[in-house]
Every structure is written in structure tokens, then in C-alpha cells.
Amino acid sequence: MPKCTLHHVRMDKIKQEYIREICFDISKEIILPKYKNLKDHDIKYKNGTDLVTSVDIAAEKELEKQLLKIIPNSNFVGEEAYSENKNILNLYNDNNYCWTVDPIDGTTNFVKGKDKFAIMIALTYKNKILYSWIYKPLIDEMCYAIYDQGTFIENKKILTKTVSNFNQAIGSISTKYWEDNYLDQLKILKNNFAEVRSYGCIGFEYIDIALGKRNFAILSKLSPWDHIPGILIVREAGGADFDFNKQSYNFTLRNKNLIVGNSEQFNLKILHKLGEYS
Ligand SMILES: [Mg+2]
């Protein structure tokens, strides 16, 4: 297991190598040995529809153990812990640092042996996102963001690039959890873009939006572990996010929808266009 045994690290002193080592070790020892090697008993359904594997659960337990060593007595919200206890979301209201973890983003891809899955981690204090990390186990690549300092892939700063027209834009639109009126509007909106396709791994989409390789994601059902890490990565790369009422993503308020894109201007264009169909 990871050898990271740091104690009492000051908040402004979190070293990228610590988190990288944790992700590398968990990938090597827990995640990758089961890639294309899952047995039937490793796979279950939670809430009737969402896949979960023994790997998601084991990776999250180890992430919790290792991250709490970095900031002792900090809070921890994990995707799999939430499925056991919905009340853990109240931890965000505490006057304390809180880790948010998605041990495997893209579990369905992982189960199918596809290549897009990631470990996602964020560190917040109250409603402020301080740090976030998205790690790609298969290529051992870390993308991270630090509040007010930027977004980096392997220590190289990245910035969004924006396109001016919808017919050059590539992105995704969630297909589930919409109220009926929005679903109809979004179906029409979709036709404006060059390509609308989901990766089945929102972490990879957030990174590609931060790189300007993709241009937007229009999202519903905003579970904190799916979005806190990517939101900071996009914001710090120059991108923007707000919901259909122009409110920025705030995981403690739980927005019902969200537009994430390369720039505020581009997101406003999407919102404006959506309004034309109402
Ligand atoms: Mg997951």
C-alpha cells in the first residue's frame, strides 16, 4: 500500500507528489490488476441502475485512509460512502477541510475494458474548492488545479481555447434527469453543434474542456464527486460554469443543471440559444 505517511501538512503546503504517489500506488495495486480482469462477483448494481465494483469500494477505502493522513481529522465524502449513508453530504457544512473522492469515474468503461476512467479528488473548505486532481491510471497522467494558481497537466500549465461558432463546437449533453420542458429544448439545441457525444467519464471531459479539445458539457444530476474536481480544473484553465439561472456551481447549494465551457462568453451563447427554444 502507499507509503505516504505525512502528518500535519499545512494547507498551503500540499505537495503534488504526495497525491500523485497515492494515486499511482492505488492504481498499481488495486485498480489496474482488475482491469479487464473482473469476475462476476466483483460487479454489483447500486440504486438499481448504477454499476459498482469491488475495485471502486477498495480504492475509495484506501484513498480515505491515505488522504486523512495528509490532513488529520479532515472530513471525507466518497461516492461509495454516500451510497451507504446519504447524510455524509452534511459534512460540507462543517467548519473543516473536506476531501471529495470518486474512486473510479467511468466505472462502466472500466468494467467494459474501455480506456476512459479516472480517479478524481478534490479538497474543499466550506464552499471553496482549494485543490483538485484527476488521475488517468492507464497512462499514469495527473491533471490538477490549485485555486487562484492555475491548472496543470504534469506540471505544465494549460489554458482553454474557445471556438466562436456552435458548428465548430464539440461537447456533451446529459440525457437523463431533466425536467420535461428542458429535455425538449435540449433535443433541439443539440442540432446546432458539430458533435454531441459523452465519454462516459466526466473527468476526461473536464480535462478536454480545460485543454480546448472539447468545448462544453451541459449537465444534470450534479453529484459532488462527479463535478467538484473538474469544475476547478476548468475554472483555473480559463473556462467557466453556471446553471440555467446564471449561478456558478456551488456544491453546497446543489444546482439542478450546469453549463461548463471554454469561456463565460461561450456558455452565455448556449444559454441564450436554449432560451430561444423555450
Ligand atoms: Mg465512480
Task: Tell me the radius of gyration.
Answer: 18 Å
Average pLDDT score = 93
CATH class of the largest domain, named Alpha Beta
- Count of distinct strands: 14
Low-confidence stretches: 1-10
Largest sheet: 7 strands, mixed
Please write the string of helix (H) and strand (E) elements.
HEEHEHEHEEEEEEHEHEHEEH
Proportion of beta-strand residues? 25-35%
Shape: globular
Small molecules (ligands, ions, cofactors) in the structure: magnesium ion
What is the number of helices?
8
Q: Main sheet: which strands, in order across?
A: 3-4-5-6-7-8-9
CATH topology label of the largest domain:
Fructose-1,6-Bisphosphatase, Chain A, domain 1
Domain unit count: 2
CATH architecture of the largest domain: 2-Layer Sandwich
Oligomer: single chain
Name of the CATH superfamily of the largest domain: Fructose-1,6-Bisphosphatase, subunit A, domain 1
Task: Give a summary of the structure in a few sentences.
The protein has 278 residues and is of the alpha+beta class. The chain has 8 helices and 14 strands. The strands form 3 sheets. Strands 3-4-5-6-7-8-9 form a 7-stranded mixed β-sheet, with helices on both faces. Strands 11-10-12-14-13 form a 5-stranded mixed β-sheet, with helices on both faces.
